[in-house]
Amino acid sequence: MLLKVKINNDLFCCCFRRKKGLIICLTLNPVFTKPINMFLEIERYIKILIAVVIIGVAAFFGYNHFENWHNSKIDSAVEKERQLWKIKDEVLQEELVRLQGKLAGQKETFISDEKIMDVLGEGAELIYPVQTKIDCKELERRITAFFEYLDKKEYIAAYHFDSKTLHLFKKMVTKVTQTLPIITGETRDILSLMRNMAHFYRILGKKRIKLIKAVLKNESDVMEPVLATFFAYLFKGNHCRNNIIAHLPLEVSYPYAGFFLNTLSGRSYLFRRNSNIRVLLSYYSGLVLDRANDEKTNIYGIDIRPYINFSMFDIVNRKGLIYQDQYLSKLVSLTKKYQM
């Protein structure tokens, strides 16, 4: 290490620190100090350069370390995401296989003649509701036979109603006729929406609602021909004069069709039911709406076309429907009628 110490204007003392603490000092004339000043300046620049190099090297290795850490984090996140998607894909594949197996296991539903006679009476055959030649007496006989069939069921007796199921049904028809649901504006306020959501519960009561659910659950295998019979009777209008059950005029059936097709409350009712019941009620509601169009009584201006498409999609993708071909044939004729 070099030190320069000024003694006076003419002399400078330069000292050198050697190893083992030995210090050597030389007294020099100012004439000889210029090289020493230059040497000290060079030494200062060298120190600065070394510091810059050290900082640069440290920064380089620090950046490399950070980049490696960052890349490892990214790789780890990507790997976790890949593993997650792999698991999801495996779950979806398993679900797909399960659904395919379930679908493959579905077979068309064939109701035996004995079952039809048991439910709809002796000599009953499958009928499609829009057939033009259906005898009113035959329809009434079938409807009566169905309620007699229900009266024999233990799960019906468990509700301890005082009257027979046919009489109960007549009362329920009267109640739904007297109080109609909201078709338009149900979402204008929360009270209207809540009342519409609870429409059947309000007018029929909890016990009757439970009875209806029990029938739909326990008789699900025969509900398609039963609904066909009831809707055939409905489409007959006042042509059947005995009126074993009150006819629902278009002024009543149309609002309920609009309720099921065109309101949040009605759709929620359907989606809580068995899928076949949902598909069939949507289909028949569309037929009621078509009749309202024919008779110029579609007062709410409900567009039938999207519901034709929805019904066609549902029925095409349903297995086990007895009248699937007839449903589709009718829907195709409606697409032509409404120029879809």
Description of the molecule:
The structure is a single chain. The protein has 340 residues and is mainly alpha-helical. The N and C termini lie far apart (101 Å). The chain is built from 14 helices and three strands. It is 66% helix and 5% strand. α13 packs antiparallel against α14 (324-337). The chain folds into two domains: 2-74, no CATH class; 113-337, no CATH class. The protein has helices spanning 33-105, 113-120, 136-151, 154-157, 165-178, 190-197, 199-204, 206-218, 223-236, 250-262, 264-271, 275-294, 305-316, 324-337, and strands at residues 2-6, 12-17, 23-28. Strands 1-2-3 form a three-stranded antiparallel beta sheet, with helices on one face. The protein is elongated, with a radius of gyration of 45 Å.
The number of domains: 2
Strand content: 5-15%
Q: Give me the Rg, rounded.
A: 45 Å
pLDDT < 50 stretches: 2-12, 22-29, 101-108
Strand arrangement within the widest β-sheet reads: 1-2-3
Class by helix and strand content?
Answer: mainly alpha
Please, what is the average pLDDT? Answer: 78
Question: Descriptors for this entry?
Answer:
340 residues, mainly alpha, three-stranded antiparallel sheet, 3 strands, 66% helix, 5% strand, disordered N terminus
Fold blueprint:
Elements: E1 2-6, E2 12-17, E3 23-28, H1 33-105, H2 113-120, H3 136-151, H4 154-157, H5 165-178, H6 190-197, H7 199-204, H8 206-218, H9 223-236, H10 250-262, H11 264-271, H12 275-294, H13 305-316, H14 324-337
Antiparallel strand pairs: 1-2, 2-3
Briefly say what this structure is.
With 340 residues, this protein is mostly helical.
